[in-house]
Amino acid sequence: MIPAKKLVMIPGPVPVSLSVLQKLGSEVKAHTDPEFVAEFQSLLSELRSITNCDGIAFLVAGSGTMGMEMAIANIADEKDKVLVCSNGHFGDRYISICRNRGLDITTMEAEWGKSVTPEEVDRELSKGGYTVAVMTHVETSTGVELHLEKMAEMMKERHPDVLFVVDGVAAGGGVKADMAWGIDVYFTCTQKAFCCVPGMAIVWAGQRALKKREELKSIRESYVDYARWIPVMTDTKKYWGTPAVNNISALKESVRIMLEEGLEERYRRHRNHAALIVEAMAALGFRTLAEDDLRSPTLSIFLYPENMPVEDLSFRESCADEGALLAACLGEYAGKGFRMGHMGNIDKHMLISAIAAIERAAISCGLDVKPGAALAVMQLGLAGK
């Protein structure tokens, strides 16, 4: 039997367009090459426009976790009082990062599958003394989307002196984020909805965040220090650390694809595809961990039916054999379901193939499902019926 081609349907890395991979595999240029310098400068301008950033877009080699550290290190020290809101595993990671920095933090933790609300955050911040609030746009462990625009509007109206930091690792490029709403720092990484390869973090810092960095005078960190990178990000002929030349060229191509599609269309597509996938999986007996009005457009956590005849690993291995790689759940939901990414440049053929693979695995594992049930939902939905 010819082995099935495996679609990477985890919450990142995601399948990458061929033209992006070709840029990644192109001949290495010097970071001082005028052609690369211009390409890098153009990309930074495009990145600023994507989030409507009035400050600087930092594009630095490293993971999303490095982006988390870069975002907080430049705007908070031991004198700052920080509210860190968690909707799951990666919100908890931010709590750990802030504690390790010795920050004066208060935590607000939502039940998995739910989200902190503007009303709850408002009540806490109204106690006074806070200078920074940190939240997660899309929580990778739960598939929960924060109602970011409403939260940002509340922050801007009720707590204008509090800097608002948003972890957009699992959202950026697939869910709208406009810093003019009242966001001071937003960050993501390249291997998720930006549909590029792993290796870089993008941190957008608005004017208020840049001013706060100036007021701090110095910070303990070197590599993630805004002050080290500002000269490079404003004039890419300058040098601090060697940029990831090929990754930058690949991201430039990925951003070209995004802008060609149109950002509003891209955000709409993500929501439409997510809704179809949830409906298709429901036809197989799976339900989402996230509450209905909090479901993320970029990834979903599907919980197994109560009568699941096989263990989690066996089911995910069967899905892989059929051609769809899925991720394990985290925390208390480990073994109770799987995480599925549906972000980036995933087209109709990929969606149909992924759902077909999951449906075949469900049948082979003994789930009582009607063959074609999930596929019918996808086919009709993608056909606009």
Brief sketch in words of this structure:
The protein has 385 residues and is α/β, with parallel strands linked by helices. The chain has helices at 18-24, 34-51, 64-73, 89-100, 118-125, 148-158, 207-216, 226-234, 245-261, 263-282, 312-322, 348-364, 373-382; strands spanning 7-8, 56-61, 81-86, 104-109, 132-136, 138-139, 144-145, 163-167, 185-189, 200-205, 287-288, 299-303, 324-325, 327-328, 337-341. It is 42% helix and 16% strand.
Query: So what's the CATH class of the largest domain?
Result: Alpha Beta
Helix proportion: 40-55%
How do the strands of the widest beta sheet line up side by side? 2-10-9-8-5-3-4
Going by CATH, the architecture of the largest domain would be 3-Layer(aba) Sandwich
Radius of gyration: 21 Å
**Stretches with pLDDT under 50, minimum 5 residues:** none
What is the count of helical runs? Answer: 13
CATH homologous superfamily title of the largest domain: Type I PLP-dependent aspartate aminotransferase-like (Major domain)
Overall body shape: globular
Largest sheet: 7 strands, mixed
Briefly note the structural class of the backbone.
alpha/beta
Alpha-carbon distance between the two ends: 35 Å
Order of helices and strands: EHHEHEHEHEEEHEEEHHHHEEHEEEHH
For the secondary structure, the number of strands is 15
Number of domains: 2
Q: Look up the CATH topology of the largest domain.
A: Aspartate Aminotransferase, domain 2
Work out the strand percent: 15-25%
> How confident overall, as mean pLDDT?
97
